[in-house]
Structure formats: structure tokens, C-alpha cells
Amino acid sequence: MTAEQNILLDPSIRDWVLLPLIMIVLFMGVLRHYVTILMNSPSKPNMARICNVNIQNYGRILLSSGAALSPESFKHRAERMLNGMLKKEVDPVNPMEMMNDPNVMMGLLKNQFMMMVPNIGMMMLVSYFFSGFVVAKFPFPLSHRFREMMQRGLEIDVLNCNYVTSLSLYFLIMSGNQGLLQLLLGEDVESENHSAMMMQQMPQASGQPVDFAKVFKQISDELAFVKDHHRWSYEKAPDVLLKNWRSQKRAKGMAVKRR
To answer: Which InterPro entries would you find in this protein's record (predicted)?
Structure first.
């Protein structure tokens, strides 16, 4: 095997394999993006869940930033939450709620469809029309471990590993075309393959049911404790302000005397 190999790319391979392969992959990415947008139906908002989330967020903000309020103001807000919003009845959590929701199941099926069908079609197209061509060469050497990755569809043991076949280039373009798609579409484009895989592995991650009864109970206990042990961060603010003002005034007076 020679130390260096120089293989010239046939202009016909460039015109009928390399450029069409790049254009087809980019076109399929753009088409998949817009078809995914068209197939995604907006989900109906759950008003009860939204209200519970707002109550939870308000309670957390009151606990974390309540030191900025005066004791009277904090106590008034805490009692209002304890006697009102945190005492509302909450429906018990149903673990099978998300699985029984037809919208969730339909969304999972759509994501799987948009991931599998185009990939299978593109794989068959590339394997049938563009398999067995050497289309590119990396400007740096690679070890023999990369042969299977860079030279799929071509079994020539004496060929250097930095030469890339059309089938391997297809996988490389598929895994790194998000930047080009973002430039073409002028917006943030997420990887549909990655999102579909995440939806398959964690179908309930985005809509995991929350036991708001336990959350409200925890916030109620924390508010009941903090209400009687509240410390106002600005309680000594007037004294500190006057002290700083006097020290600055004294420093200015001493500077005038020195002049």
C-alpha cells in the first residue's frame, strides 16, 4: 500500500452524485421541517393546570423574594394565599392521564412517522442510485478504525481511510445539516431526528402530571412558618442611608477644610 494516494474526482461523479446528493438531503430537510409544522396541531390549553401552575409560581416567588416586602405586606399576602388559593380543591393525579389523551398519542405517532418514513425513503434512494462512489477526501489522515464509517458501500482495503464514499457522506450531511437549514429557513431549526428519539424515550417528559395537592401543602407549610419569622431586608435601610450620607458629608467637609 502506498504512503500517499491521489485520486481525481471525475466531473461526472461531482455533477451527478455529489451535488445531487447534497441538494436532495437539504431539500428533504426543508420539506420535513414544513410538513412537521403543518402536521403539528396546537394543543388545547388546560386552564385548571395553568391556574395551578400560576399559584405554585406565585407561592415560590413569595417565599424566595418575600424579604423585600415589609412584615405587614408579606403577612397580608401570605394569609391571603393560605386562606384562599392554597385551599382550593385539586383533582387527584391520574398516572394514565397522559397516555389516555388521544392528542398526546397522535403527536407521538406523527413524530415517529416524520422520523422513520423520510429516513427509510432517503436511505433506499441513496443506496440504489448513489452507492459505490468515492466523492470526497478529507485533508487530514484517518486511522483504519474510521474505514467502516467513511467508506460504507465500498469494500476496497487498499484505499486510504480519508476518502469518503457517497453513502458515508449522506450520513455526515444528515448529522450536520442543521446549520445550513437554519440559514435557508431564517429561523431556529431543531433536529427532528433528535426530538423524535427523545419523544420515543421519554413520551411523558414534557407533560408529566404534577400532584398539585402535595405542592400546595408544601407551600402552605412553608408560608405558615415564614409568616411568623419574617425578616425585612430593608428594615434598617433608613439608618444605613443616613449613616452613609453623614459620612459622605463629613468627608466632603474635611476635603474643603484642607483646601
So the answer is: EMC3 (IPR008568), EMC3/TMCO1 (IPR002809)
